[in-house]
């Protein structure tokens, strides 16, 4: 991407997102631009067209036929000699015909109405599939978003650690020049400082990798760079009690509702197969405009006819009963799948509820650990300055502080993601 394109893109992004990109803005963008969501939406559009198409099965069909036939000679009938042997014209050389017909199904054994029911349920299934895809996309965006936030904050954390280490290295070098510390202390400090420089490189690479994932989900060019809001606040975490979450989730989860609708569609499919045992009755009306007329004159005339027709397949050597058995098996398969999905959903909700409690506890522990390691580093640095602590104590305290800061950042992200996953599991993530 050239410089001009990057500049234009950044201007567009700054217009779309006032200031830094927030998680809500990322989700809004992702739900409108993500490829998987678009695919699910198109599938829903196609299913609705199938439903409209199935509805036309109740309506009459109109047809029009027109023909012109020219004979090499007009047909005649020659009378026997005993009747004079004369020839009588039986037609004309030029023959015209226009026929308009209307056919209306009257009885089909329920095949049309059950076909419509199946198509209508199929459209609803795709609506739920879209909702399910949106849930998955929100979770993926949240994970990618906090991946970027984590990586950016870790870069800041390591940069602060480098400042601390550079200050400590300057002290060690001064003390070494005065012969107050051993050469090994100097080397240890320089190695620790170099390790932090390497950590910064890796942290920047992690930011770039995290951005690639987020850009993909938001349908941005892979090298797009925009500011992320490093929100580390938690706020009030409110969630329904486990029983309420289970009740709501098992009733409104889109994956469960999809299977419930699928079971209804399977029942309609079985009813369609039973309908093949019934006769099909249709009413037909035809109107014709033709020449020559009934008197074999070169004049147009019109005529009409009404037909009530029935067709009934008497013998199919078991084909229809095999179809019924297959449809019944598919219905039973869907019912078993639904039962298994409900049990799996209950297990998922319980596990995510426990994970949410664990994430809350982990956040509390990581916060306390950060406070403790921060204080420990201050103490170690102060004691080293008075000769009460060795250089390794400062280096170890700095490493522990880096780990605690990274752990606290990750705990915040884990907490927020756990909330989103739990809300998706109990079907409240996308509800107003």
Fold topology:
Blueprint: H1 3-16, H2 23-33, H3 35-55, E1 61-70, E2 76-78, E3 87-89, E4 94-107, H4 111-177, H5 183-217, H6 242-252, H7 254-275, E5 280-291, E6 301-311, H8 319-385, H9 391-425
Antiparallel strand pairs: 1-4, 2-3, 4-5, 5-6
Name a few traits of the molecule.
432 residues; two-stranded antiparallel ribbon; Outer membrane efflux proteins (OEP); 6 strands; 4-stranded antiparallel β-sheet; alpha+beta
Structure overview:
- The chain is α+β, with helices and mostly antiparallel strands and 432 residues long.
- It folds into two domains: 14-59 and 108-276 and 316-425, Outer membrane efflux proteins (OEP) (Up-down Bundle); 63-106 and 281-312.
- 66% of the residues lie in helices and 12% in strands.
- The protein is built from nine helices and six strands; from the N terminus they run αααββββααααββαα.
- It has helices spanning 3-16, 23-33, 35-55, 111-177, 183-217, 242-252, 254-275, 319-385, 391-425; strands spanning 61-70, 76-78, 87-89, 94-107, 280-291, 301-311.
- Strands 1-4-5-6 form a four-stranded antiparallel sheet, with no helix packed on it.
- A hairpin with an 8-residue loop joins strand 2 and strand 3 (87-89).
- Helix 2 (23-33) crosses helix 4, helix 3 (35-55) packs antiparallel against helix 4 (111-177) and helix 6 packs antiparallel against helix 8.
- The chain is elongated.
């Amino acid at each position: 991407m050239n410089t001009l394109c990057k500049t234009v893109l950044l201007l567009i992004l700054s217009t779309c997102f006032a200031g830094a990109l927030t998680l809500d803005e990322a989700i809004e963008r992702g739900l409108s631009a993500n490829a998987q969501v678009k695919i699910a939406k198109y599938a829903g559009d196609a299913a609705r067209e199938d439903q409209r198409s199935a509805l036309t099965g109740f309506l009459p069909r109109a047809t029009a036929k027109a023909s012109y036939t020219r004979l090499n000679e007009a047909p005649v009938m020659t009378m026997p000699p005993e009747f004079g042997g004369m020839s009588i014209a039986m037609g004309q050389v030029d023959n015209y015909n226009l026929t308009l017909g209307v056919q209306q199904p009257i009885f089909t054994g329920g095949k049309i109405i059950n076909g419509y029911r199946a198509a209508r349920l199929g459209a609803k299934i795709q609506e739920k599939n879209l909702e399910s895809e949106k849930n998955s996309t929100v979770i993926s965006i949240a994970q990618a978003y906090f991946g970027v936030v984590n990586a950016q904050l870790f870069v800041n954390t390591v940069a602060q650690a480098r400042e601390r280490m550079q200050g400590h290295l300057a002290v060690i070098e001064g003390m070494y020049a005065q012969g107050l510390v051993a050469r090994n202390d100097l080397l240890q400090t320089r190695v620790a400082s170099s390790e932090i420089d390497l950590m910064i490189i890796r942290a920047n690479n992690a930011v770039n990798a995290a951005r690639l994932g987020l850009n993909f989900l938001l349908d941005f060019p892979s090298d797009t760079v925009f500011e992320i809001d490093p929100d580390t606040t938690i706020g009030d975490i409110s969630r329904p009690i486990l029983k309420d979450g289970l009740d709501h989730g098992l009733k409104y989860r889109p994956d469960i509702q999809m299977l419930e609708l699928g079971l209804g569609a399977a029942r309609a499919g079985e009813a369609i197969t039973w309908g093949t045992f019934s006769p099909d009755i249709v009413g037909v009306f035809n109107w014709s405009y033709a020449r020559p007329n009934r008197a074999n004159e070169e004049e147009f005339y019109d005529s009409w006819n009404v037909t009530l027709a029935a067709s009934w397949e008497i013998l199919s050597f078991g084909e229809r009963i095999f179809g019924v058995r297959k449809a019944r098996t598919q219905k039973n398969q869907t019912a078993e799948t639904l039962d298994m999905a409900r049990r799996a959903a209950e297990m998922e909700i319980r596990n995510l509820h426990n994970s949410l409690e664990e994430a809350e506890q982990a956040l509390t522990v990581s916060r306390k650990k950060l406070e403790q390691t921060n204080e420990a580093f201050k103490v170690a640095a102060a004691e080293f300055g008075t000769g009460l602590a060795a250089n390794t104590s400062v280096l170890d305290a700095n490493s522990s502080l880096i780990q605690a800061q990274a752990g606290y950042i990750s705990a915040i992200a884990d907490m927020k993601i756990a909330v989103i996953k739990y809300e998706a599991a109990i079907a409240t993530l996308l509800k107003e």
